[in-house]
Amino acid sequence: MASIVLSAPLQGWVTALNDVPDAVFAGRMLGDGLAIDPTGTCLYAPCDGRIVSVQATGHALTIEADNGAQMLIHLGIDTVGLSGRGFTPHVRAGDRVTAGDALIDFDLDLLVREAPAIITPILLVESEGYSLTNRAATGPIEVGAPLMTVRAIAPLATEKDADTDAPRENRTLRVDLPHGIHARPAARIAACARAFNATIALGKDARTASALSPTGLLALGIGQGDAITLTAQGSDATAALDALVALIASGMNEAPAPAAPRRAAMRETDVPEGALAGVTAAPGLAIGAVRHHRAIDPEVSPVGNGVAQEEAAFTTAHAALASDMMRQAETAHGPAHAILEAHAALLADPALIDATHAGIARGESAGHAWRAAIRPQADALRAGGDAHLAERADDLRDLERQLLARLLGGAAAAQHYPVGTILIAEDLMPSDLIGSAEGLAGLCIAKGGPTSHVAILAASMGLPALVAIGPDVLSIADDTRVILDASNGLLHTAPTADQLAEAEAAQAKAAARRAEALARADMLCHAADGTRIEVVANLGSAAEAAPAIANGAEGCGLLRTEFLFLERDTAPSIEEQAAEYQAIAAALDGRPLIVRLLDIGGDKPAPYLPIAGEENPALGLRGIRVSLAHPALLEDQLRAILSVQPTGQCKIMLPMVAQIEELRRVRALLDRLCAELGITTVVQLGIMVETPAAAITADLLAREADFLSIGTNDLTQYTLAMDRANPAVASALDGLHPAVLRLIGETCRGGAAHGRWTGVCGGLASDPLAVPILLGLGVTELSTAPVMVPTIKALVSDVTLAVCRDHAAAALACASAAEVRALARSFATKEMSV
């Protein structure tokens, strides 16, 4: 069994499982891994493998990699309660997928509005015999970038044999859990079963799964009201069944299913006059002129011109098509790349090739033999009654047309459409879209389905698309101006002037928001009243620096140096560290670079710095305490930072400060090293405020620290006495709790008393709802996720400090984080244009 590298299945922000606001995931009850807070709208396959299960509500799936490891990907928290709204799966159990294949489209806006959180855990489940290494650092990540490595460490252990002399016991019960047995209940059932000396299985209909296997339980698809059978054999069989029946019957504290929104199937009477209804394949709004794509099946002669000539023609055409697909795949990305690879594999299918050669040997033309070989397979898929497989038949028909085109005179030329074209087709093949999408604003397809490869391509290209809209769409004349409201499943074929104006206004507003944020990105940030507010970026490696600057970052407010120290057997040398810091400084082109000293311990151990087991690592040896306990490591890191040119561009920040003595010890070492190295330029030394002690004594610390930067993630856990690693309380953590906000205010006041600036480099700096409150409390620097820099800069430029101060005062008077968030949402709606 080989190790495999899992690629990021989502675009977004990588974070540790400890930060997931759900006890099951944060407590690793389902397995270990990472989480991504998504900024994209599609989930892609992280590796080659087989889909084990897809939840009926479309919010989660399990994939088995080629080395046998199983990964559970759960889109958002408590998203099972959406009952499928916002999710469009493109795969089903049993499907073979390739890394990069589109798996599930999701409506990010809907999830943000209606789910408790959209952070997505990616977990190694059924993990015996595997381990995770090379985890991506916290920070932004693109689809396809390395996320973590699954390493096979031993053959998978098998479940212990049952006591064959013990009787087998059965219980049957009805599952009344509001959402059936999804990820959370499956984890709790497995945890319960592990406590007993018995072999335990759950069964639904004719299928069974081990109670110890959360993924096996998910694959059963047990919903509310389903009858299941519990079977146990072993010395603890009776006790185990009693416990499991009681657990399932207890409801497991699962929230009741919310009332489903009224969303009846669209009847003809529900369709506005002058509109056609279809199935949303890719959401969005587009206005444009109609163009028709009319595919023609070429005529082929049934009789060939001799076996040798037809064999040569087929071999040449086949090789040309295969070569063209390889060339296109080399430059394609995402779904287009995966689809081209899939088509290339189908094209190389020996069964198709052999059947074609057999037809040619019987005297048929190459084209007729190829069609006779491939079309029955496509027709069989269409006739099988499975809509998903019927859509895969399109791939075979696409290959049929492409090869016939080459046999009859060369590859079909790419189509070019006027800008703003709404393309209408009876059916559309992937090859019709790959390489021919320029100018298109949207797609309307009479046939097809929402999980077809064309639908996947449209979504990846950002093209609004409707499928299964029916034959009436084919009668719309070319050049007719239409409104494609794919999000609502409608094509307005004769829009009124008011409808056009409304749609144009909606498009203009969205475009203006995007353009304005990007246009402001490279400008220094000021509030609407002229107050200077720095917006910088959190970085985790040299590769992240250039994209951050492109997004308008005014520097780096937090360089996490852990990327140099973790996932290795020895500490990095001074030279290795210096080269990395210098590369980042160079990429920032003179902009300030705040380097946080090594922050390990707690949930970030290093094998070469053994730390004895602690009852509560969050309160033990971590942050600056680790560096002070290993002075040689601290000195090496300071020497590497001091070597960066120009001297002074790098500022140094201490993590997890709780008392002034920690600052003084590092200051003394820094002063000594500067003297030894002949450095006369002032090198600023600041602290991270992550403990209530540092916040309350900020006025004392600011006497000796050059700046203060608040790490809101840890400050929140320490303020609320809620360990992020404790699944019983992790879900209640919220940095907008009034207690946390009051400590932020105290920090700002303490820093201002000595002329020190206070920034925020924790998660709140990237939260648009939190930013106006932070400004009102006195924060003058925001260090955000790089992708959020344009958004945060645009937001800051729309507010005045006076309005923010009033808003912050109101927030401090709230009784809970929920009240603060409600207040912040109201502020965003009413005041952001001030």
Structure description:
- The structure is a single chain.
- With 834 residues, the chain is α/β, with parallel strands linked by helices.
- The chain contains 26 helices and 34 strands.
- Helix 12 links the parallel strand 23 and strand 24 (465-467).
The number of helical runs is: 26
Q: Main sheet?
A: 8 strands, antiparallel
Low-confidence stretches: 155-162, 257-269, 385-389, 725-731
Oligomer: single chain
Helix content: 25-40%
Radius of gyration: 30 Å
Give the strand content. Answer: 15-25%
Lateral strand order in the biggest sheet: 9-5-6-7-11-3-2-13
Overall mean pLDDT score? 83
Structural classification: alpha/beta
- Coarse morphology: globular
The N- to C-terminal Cα distance equals 60 Å
SSE order and pairing:
Blueprint lengths: L3 E4 L4 E5 L6 H4 L5 E7 L3 E3 L4 E6 L5 E6 L4 E5 L12 E3 L6 E2 L4 E5 L1 H7 L5 E6 L4 E4 L5 E3 L4 E7 L15 E7 L8 H11 L5 E6 L2 E4 L3 H6 L7 E7 L3 H13 L25 E3 L1 E4 L2 E9 L13 H25 L2 H14 L2 H12 L4 H18 L3 H21 L13 E5 L4 H4 L6 E6 L7 H9 L3 E3 L13 E5 L4 E3 L4 H24 L13 E6 L5 H6 L5 E5 L13 H15 L4 E4 L27 H6 L1 H12 L7 E5 L5 H18 L7 E5 L2 H5 L1 H4 L6 E3 L1 H8 L18 H15 L5 E3 L10 H7 L3 E4 L4 H9 L3 H12 L4 H14 L4
Parallel strand pairs: 21-22, 22-23, 23-24, 27-28, 27-34, 28-29, 29-30, 30-31, 31-32, 32-33, 33-34
Antiparallel strand pairs: 1-14, 2-3, 2-13, 3-11, 4-10, 5-6, 5-9, 6-7, 7-11, 8-10, 12-14, 15-18, 16-17, 16-18, 19-26, 20-24, 21-25, 25-26
Offer a few descriptive terms:
single chain, 834 residues, alpha/beta, 8-stranded antiparallel sheet, 26 helices, globular
